[in-house]
Amino acid sequence: MSDTTPVKQQSTAAFYGQAVASFGVAMSAVTLGIFFLHADGWVRGFLAIGVLYLVTSCFTLAKVIRDRQEEGRIVSRVDQARLEKILAEHDPFQKL
What is the pTM of this model? Predict the structure, then answer.
């Protein structure tokens, strides 16, 4: 018994666009801030590497959280399918 119903999308295109734009603005602001910072080149380089590390860590964390949520949905759907199968096969009027 397989359920081929597609998973309902949780966010709209506008929300996706806003998230992408927000990321672009934030990354540009930090990049410009580091570029125009009155400090030595190694300090600006260290800050740039730190920002890149932080951004990649955030992407990784978001992916791990999403994967765990999807895994939970799959397990839940399998358990629900098993329960529906048991209930469909159960005959309450069957003599023991």
Answer: 0.59
